[in-house]
Amino acid sequence: MSRRHPTVPPGDPLPPGDPLPPGAPRPNPIRLLVPYLAQYKARIAVAMTCLLLAKVAHVTVPMVLKWIVDDLSAASIGKAVVVVPFLLLLAYGLARFSVTLLTELREFFFAKVTQRAVRRIALETFEHLHRLSLRFHLARQTGGLTRDIERGTRGITSLMSFVLFSILPTLVEFALVCGVLAWNYDWTFVTITLITLVGYIAYTIFVTEWRTTFRKEMNELDSKANSKAIDSLLNYETVKYFGNERFEADRYDESLQRWERAAVRSQTSLSLLNLGQSLFIAAGATLVMWRAIEGVIAGRMTVGDLVLVNAFLIQLYVPLNFLGVIYREIRQSMTDMGRMFSLMAEHQEVADRPGAVALGADAPPAGDVVFDNVHFSYESDRSILHGVNFHVPAGQTFAVVGPSGGGKSTLARLLFRFYDVTVGSIRVDGRDIRDYTQASLRAAIGIVPQDTVLFNDTLGYNLSYGMPSASEAQLQAAIRAARLDDFIARLPKGLETTVGERGLKLSGGEKQRVAIARALLKNPAILIFDEATSALDSESEKAIQAEIRAVSRERTTLIIAHRLSTIVDADCILVMDTGGIAERGTHAELLAAQGLYARLWALQAEHAGV
Question: What is the mean pLDDT of the chain?
């Protein structure tokens, strides 16, 4: 039986292209990244030492080649027997091998630094997203969100690779080459090299900045297209119900067409960048070689010096050919990391107060619940609850009924602290729930939601999710209590049966029974049933209602129901209408009052008799 459970260490969402609202301070990705790298100072120091030594070896290769050429030229001029300077050849081979060895050692020591930073940041982003309020997750675009996280973590690796292993080595080598040229030759060599490099970099940055707008547009359109595709696939059944496959394909293709236009502009502008870069390199290389040839003709330089200068130019300018791509990727990595760090900076609407205590730290929670003058609104101009007052003594069962849109399910969301109340307070065991840690409060509450969404895993995994550490006996007891045992026995794979994306392989009633079983497995002090039997047939509903009544005797229970026949035995029934409590009392008292509850009862009885 699969009962895996992951173990990890201790406003409205924004469009995919920009996780922060206009005017909000932008996070500095480099500054935020530094703390994740700081703990590996020794590894970084060793890696940087290897980098410097590798560049020294790289610069040494042309110098050894110059000495070999000069020795051979001298032997030829003197009509002597040409004896290859074996020591120089060995030094040449050793220098070349050292470049590769030191480069790989640099990668070896730095690999753990980069990958550990990626892992920690990805984990912290994942944990932070789970801490954000339900408001954020109800309005998010899952496809764009996951793509931002994916690109952000990939951006860290790219940034480390390009900055530390491309830009920094090139700058170190450039400094070493300029030092050698300035020491051995006249100032014109260094001047031409500097002017070429500065002009090349300036041109590359200017054109790349211009091209960045196309790249950003590509990424935004890519995220939007991905969001639409995932949203459509998640709602596969709805698409089929209405025969809108063509509509969804056209909608997706519209996003792809816009992405295609941005991609074409990005690619054509790349040609302009490459041409300009080639012009700078060709001009600089020609001028330097002209000065070297002139020096050989005048006798100031040897053929070996000509070979040395040419080798230096090749070593310097070959990496520069990729500077435009590297700069663009660095900018893109910074943007991607910024978007991921912006998600981490997203305001945590519901947070633990400083000094919050754990519910049940001193004694098991009793489950006494009080709603005291509770006002709440999802939006400032749309009030949902106003002045709600009621008290559920520990161990009693209260039911909440009323017309749709009256605020019944909002009570459960507020008690679970998916949101915080606007005015008033909710108390559990005599204390405002905002004074408790969210983890301890939610551990004391079990919810069976109206719309049960399951993980795309096995039935056993979804059932044991209520208490991953539960024993086999506890799990089987919860299965029997939810009347799932016969259903599981009929499955060829039993608890190893996969339930599909969001549990779509199970019927609505089967999913609700899974939700009931895992809520019972959690064994909370407070149980909330939000239309928990709405998808069950009459026989299963009666059986589960009997189980609900049995478990309710031992804990505080709040039942949110539409079918009034399921809550007639409740200790108290609250009738909600337009965000307030219109009536309260037992079933018999409310019928005698001939108010809203009596009218709802009569309507349902009439419908049942039809």
Answer: 78
Q: Cα-atom radius of gyration of the chain, to the nearest Å?
A: 35
Tell me, what's the pLDDT at 15?
A: 35
Q: How many residues does the chain have?
A: 610
| Tokens standing for residue 257 | 């067409």
First to last CA, the chain: 46
Which residues is 498 bridged to in the sheet? Answer: 458
Topology of domain 29-344, CATH: ABC transporter transmembrane region fold (1.20.1560)
Among the ranges given (173-182, 255-264, 333-342), the one the predictor scored with the smallest mean pLDDT: 333-342
Using an 8 Å Cβ cutoff, are 132 and 19 in contact?
Answer: no
- 348 compared with 10, residue with greater pLDDT: 348
Residue indicated by tokens 């006798």: 299
- What is the CATH number that goes with domain 357-444+526-539+550-610? 3.40.50.300
CB of 564 closer than 8 Å to CB of 401: yes
For residue range 474-528, list pLDDT tens digits in order. Answer: 888 888 887 888 888 888 888 888 887 767 788 777 888 888 888 888 888 898 8
Please give the structure tokens belonging to residue 89.
């050849």
Question: CA 27 to CA 13: how far, in whole Å?
Answer: 17
Give the single-character DSSP code of 166: I
Give the pLDDT mean for 150-168.
76
Q: Select from 3.40.50.300, 3.40.50.1390, 3.30.420.40, 3.30.450.70 the CATH code of 452-523.
A: 3.40.50.300
Nearest-angstrom CA–CA distance, 124 and 350 = 17
